[in-house]
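Objective 1b. Sequence-to-structure analysis of L-fuculose-phosphate aldolase.
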Amino acid sequence: MNVTLFQVYATFAPMTASSSALSQERAAVADACRRLGAEGLLIGTAGNVSVRVGDRVAITATGAVLAELTPDQVTVVDLDGEIVAGSLRPTSELELHLGVYRRYGTGAVVHTHAPMATAVSCVLDELPCIHYQLLALGGTVRVAPHATFGTPELAESVLTALDGRSAALLANHGAVTHGTTLDKAVENALLLEWACGVYQRAAAMGRPRFLDEQQQLAVIEAAIARDYGTTHPAAPAQEQSR
């Protein structure tokens, strides 16, 4: 058989490219965990993070210390949960992550036991829209009823709470956020923790005020009109003086 070098390369090149891409995502998940740990949202082995690449998901391994996570402690699975790369078992919340990907087609999922979010989840049935920035998460944040970690009941409860939202609290447990990218899912987790902290401080001083539906709509309209959240070049000095 006359096999050319080109034929050999064509056979292995796609696999190499795929492997390289997944290596980058495994490193990104490890970086995200270390950032969340530095921000105080992750402690010990509690929590899990994942990112989706096509029909593959890079997800933290069970039992790993997340604030010190390395890429080899991130496992790659397919959308059925079968391991395709890595030597460690994935997190016990694997079905929760896969459920979010299947139902909402998102790009990344973050689950933490962040202290402020967990405290709020022990008291409220939902976190009201105490600040307009919560609109970035969809508005009020629902609290999914308590269920044992790693169970189908917990996964389904959280998926329901996430309907129309990019964040949910888990009663007496923690929080879940998702986003189109891993960076966005992490930013959503940080935003949720900040909002829970604002609520706790406000509630300690009195009865917090919340934004009603009309006020929320006004914020959304203003944000759209001003392209809120993006940078814009300043007008030339001569135009500013006119």
